[in-house]
Amino acid sequence: MKKLTLQEIAQWCEGTVASEFANITVDGISTDSREIHPGQLFIPLIGSRYDGHQYIHKALEQGAVAVLTMKEIEDTIPAVHVQDTLIAYGKLASNYREYLGLKVIAITGSVGKTTTKEMVASVMHTTYRTAKTEGNQNNEVGLPMTIMHIEQDCQYAVLELGINHFGEMSRLTAIARPNIALVTNIGTMHIEHLGSREGILKAKMEILEGLEPNGILILNGDEPLLWALKNKLQERFQVYYFGMDNPDCDVLGSDMRSVDHGITLDLKGFGKEFPVFVPVEGKHNAYNAIAAGTTGLICGIAPEKIQLGMSRFENTGMRQRVYEEQGYTIIEDCYNAGPESMRAALNVLAERKVSGKRIAVLGDMMELGSRAMAEHYRVGRYCAGLVDMVFAYGYHATRIVTGAITGGMEPTNALYFDSMEELVTLLKMRAQPGDALLFKGSRGMKMERALEMFLDNGEE
User: Fold this and answer.
1) What pTM, to 2 d.p., does this model score?
2) Is 87 contained in some domain?
3) Torsion of the alpha carbons at 386, 392, 396 and 398, rounded to the nearest 10
4) Do 22 and 6 contact (CB within 8 A), yes or no?
5) Could you say which of 33, 54, 82 is where a domain stops?
6) Among 261, 290, 311, residue at a domain's last position
7) What is the pLDDT of residues 321-342, one digit of tens each?
8) E-state strands within 222-271
């Protein structure tokens, strides 16, 4: 981060600073007093269960040279005073983004946005100095943190914007100020808070409020709700569509094939046609790859560079890691789950070539509201045609099992559990080397624990 004076910080976040502290400089920012480094500015945030202002003195002891505060503190402490530290943090990051003079690619969508972000960054990195959101730092705290850590020589930043309520995207896009906005899809994640797929569309499209005039908008043309916006948006933005099924898309992916350790497909658009290999599996990841390829072409990246970037892609966190261990094929996809991503993961399991059984170990999908029971039942029905066994865990596990049995699965192969320990105990009895096992559920279900226990890498 560029060194900033407290006067500059006060101007950027619309705060005030006493004249005797105005020229103090900071070379970094932290919202966690436990991670403060000497020379940094401490920003205390207020949450539902904590108030960072309680840790101001600890941060100073750790080496912080100043604080951003919305509460009265001793006038001997170098401070920038603001009305709301979270809002001020966003304003600071927004102005720092403008100071850097880079171009921002902002990515959102119901599912696939983190994977797409990683693919886009991998493609962009082949040609431009590129920063990206690390992990899933995609909210009103993580986004400013990402921006404030961008190096001054970066040309592009690939930023993920994640929401689950109306108005959140408005605040995020005001911070990011994207030159390019990419929407992967409109699904049912967070429908509990947003009401309907149309509500989700409305919330996601708040991203346009921060998109520069005549900015570039990249949308999934196979999603009817996004395709229907075409004529409404073209007067304000440069709109491009990607897809696999809609022949009128600007960039089309075709001839997707599963190969060892990934997929291949052909990309065609903007007068170019070329194959790409991506080291992940499933049609849903083909869409992510087409979106990344579309972004690369729009940004002037040569096809051979796009091919290179795709081949170097590495997924993050607990998103669809496929590996062999103890004779089993493990598909670890425990980061999150919704109806769309659950079906996509089950497709990956079904497509695996195995000598044994295909076993789905599934936790609840959260934030589905009144649709929860029906969606879990549908997932169970979907399992019936694809996999050999289902082990379901959570409040809605019975609905998954009911769906699987009514879909034709033998009742002895569709089982639900209230206890993760009981699930793992029976799974160890029923699974055999040569089987493929998928572990997936919403973040709150912590299905990675079931995997660790199954492989004896965690506590039982």
Assistant:
1) 0.76
2) no
3) 80
4) yes
5) 82
6) 311
7) 888 999 999 999 988 888 988 9
8) 238-243, 251-259, 262-269
Residues 361, 443 within the same domain: yes
What are the residues whose beta carbons fall under 8 Å from the beta carbon of 215, sequence distance 6 or more?
Answer: 178, 179, 180, 181, 237, 238
3-class secondary-structure state, position 188 = coil
CB atoms < 10 A from the CB of 401, how many? 25
List the CATH number of the domain containing 25.
3.40.1390.10
Q: How far apart are CA 122 and CA 130, in angstroms?
A: 9
Helix (H, G, I), strand (E, B) or coil at 100: helix
Q: Name the helix (H) or strand (E) containing 399.
A: helix 397-406
What domain range is 65 assigned to? 4-82
Torsion of CA 75, 81, 84, 86, to 10 degrees: -100
333 and 426 housed in the same domain:
yes
Q: Which SS3 state, helix, strand or coil, does residue 117 take?
A: helix
Beta bridge partners of 420: none
| pLDDT tens-digit series, residues 235-248 | 899 999 999 999 99
196 shares a domain with 70? no
Distance, CA of 23 to CA of 37 (rounded, Å):
19
**Do 181 and 244 fall within a single domain?**
yes
Q: How many domains does the chain have?
A: 3
Query: To the nearest 10°, the Cα dihedral for 403, 366, 119, 101?
Result: 160
One domain for residues 234 and 116:
yes
153 lies in the same domain as 252? yes
Q: Are 175 and 169 in contact (CB under 8 A)?
A: no
Neighbours of 372 (CB within 10 A): 18
Contacts of 220 (CB under 8 A, 6+ apart): 109, 183, 184, 185, 186, 226, 241, 242, 243, 287, 291
Task: Answer yes or no: is 107 within a domain.
Answer: yes
Q: Which of 77, 73, 41, 38 is nearest to 54 (CA)?
A: 73
Task: Kindly state whether residue 96 falls inside one of the protein's structural domains.
Answer: no
Q: List Cα–Cα distances, 351 to 258, 347, 441, in angstroms.
A: 8, 6, 20
Instruction: Give CA separation, 307 vs 54, 119, 366, 379, in Å.
Output: 50, 11, 36, 34
Q: How far apart are CA 90 and CA 176, in angstroms?
A: 9
271-290 confidence digits (pLDDT tens): 999 999 998 888 889 999 99
Q: Is residue 19 part of a domain?
A: yes
Contact 276, 283 (CB under 8 A): no
**267 shares a domain with 160:** yes
Pairing of strands 321-325, 272-278: unpaired
Is the CA virtual torsion 197, 202, 208, 210 positive or negative?
Answer: negative
Reading the block at residue 107, the tokens are 């990515």
